[in-house]
Amino acid sequence: MTKRIVITGIGLTSPIGNNLGEMRTNLIEGKSGIAETDIRYMGKRPAGLCDFDEFKYQKKKMRRRGTRAGSIGIYCANEALADAGITVDDSNRNDIGVFIGLTEHGNVETEEEIYQMHENDLDYRLWSIHHNPRTVSNSPAGEITLNLGIHGPHFTVGAACAGGNMGLIQGVQQILLGEVETALCGGLSESPATFGIFAAFNAQGALGSHPKDASLASRPLCETRNGITIAEGGCVYHIETLESAEKRNAKIYGEILAYSYNSDGTDFVLPNSERQIQCMNKALDRANLTVEDIDIVNLHATGTVMGDINEVKAVSEVFNESKNTYINFTKGHIGHTMGAAGALELAGNLPSFEDGIVHPGINVVKLDPNCEMNNLVINKAIETNDIDIILNNSFGMLGINSTVIIRKI
Fold first, then answer.
1. Could you point out which of 6, 287, 376, 392 has its C-alpha 20 to 30 Å from the C-alpha of 258?
2. Chain-centre distance of CA 189, in angstroms?
3. How many CB atoms lie within 10 A of CB 109?
4. Where do the structural domains in the chain lie, given as residue ranges?
5. How far is residue 123's CA from residue 114's CA, in Å, rounded to a whole number?
6. How far is CA 75 from the centre of its chain?
7. Which residues lie across from 238 on neighbouring strands?
């Protein structure tokens, strides 16, 4: 990359915290944010919900017009700007871009409108006048620009569960292209507010559960895992050039050193280990790094049987010769936050640059023998004083793979 791009602000909400400090503490302590919640037509199911204040940065009238995903994005974007020490005004509003990764969007609002029609004799006049702007694919990113008065470009990145990484990558690319000076970028998900995603994963036999304790429903790599635990959340980064950050003496979380993304081209849902290997190796090559240079790899690790096995096979193939690389994962704590996953999971590891702690993957009662790998950090954090480079994996349906590498400065 011709310019060095750094992270100078982080705004997030997750099932285990509404800022990075809260989330990090709960990651290290091994706390789960999964609990039973009522899902329309399906009864009580495990899910990861956020409890941020929707009206901290948004008026009730605008919230009624907008979407749950948009409200998550508005909260995270404002928190990221506050963290970065940036105020949007006439001096910069034309130079900021907003690039947000998503899985799906609009299902929450559409399901509710259909439900209300069926409860009221199919009266089509109940269909909301706000339906179109709520459900266009750029809505969450656009809602952020409306809230903040940003005049730079915005768009969403439809990248399934790789969306969080891909939103960050798009922010980097837009700065490198000279389209924007700074970017708000990352990923969002409102998935638990729609019964359809629960019903669909249930139909696939891939909806996570636990017979006694909902907090254990998400247990990637565990021998008894049985699927995905659906969660919501968001993470928006403020990124800029290193030159800009140093000029204003900003706090720097890390430098985005390299990235890669590709497609499996093989199956709707089953991951392809070879393409994941290719994606990781391409990022390493672009960063001019060896596997021994990577201190932490965060697995995508959804908790599906074959998804976990195929990813472990890929990561083991790439990193098996490294004695220096710790492997962890995050979905045991927060569930699968879909389009937010890559961005949230990267954020959870970034404090390792300062505190030297590798947070664990949790809920592994008995490790699946097919998921054994070197330096896997499970159930208990590891303290080390030598964390300089993190590799973050995020993969999605239809075979989209993404890898981001971040370096301590």
1. 376
2. 8
3. 22
4. 5-247, 258-407
5. 10
6. 15
7. 9, 184
Q: What is the pLDDT of residues 36-67, one digit of tens each?
A: 999 999 999 999 999 999 999 999 999 999 99
Among 123-137, 183-197, 228-242, 306-320, whose mean pLDDT is lowest?
123-137
**Closest C-alpha among 142, 148, 149 to residue 80:** 148
Residue 297's beta-bridge partner residues?
Answer: 327, 391
Nearest to 262 by CA among 279, 281, 249, 248: 279
Q: 10 Å Cβ neighbour count for 32?
A: 24
CB 226 within 8 A of CB 209: yes
Tens of pLDDT, residues 317-366:
999 889 999 999 999 999 999 999 999 999 999 999 999 999 999 999 99
The C-alpha angle 97, 74, 46, rounded to 5 degrees, equals: 125
CATH class for domain 258-407? alpha beta
Task: Give which of 153, 182, 185 is closest to 259, Cα–Cα.
Answer: 185
Angle (CA) 358-173-68 rounded to 5° is 70
Longest CA pairwise span in the chain (Å):
65
User: Which tokens in the block code for residue 208?
Assistant: 């996570």
Place of tokens 């000029």: 247
Tokens of 240: 């800029």
* pTM of the full structure: 0.97
Instruction: Let me know how long the chain is.
Output: 409
Query: What count of Cα atoms within 13 Å lies in the side-chain half-sphere of residue 137?
Result: 11
Question: Class assignment of domain 5-247?
Answer: alpha beta
Q: Helix H segments across 301-402?
A: 305-319, 331-334, 341-349, 352-355
Which residues pair with residue 36 across a beta bridge? 46
Domain 5-247 and domain 258-407, same fold? Reply is: yes
Helix axes 163-176, 341-349, angle to 10 degrees: 80
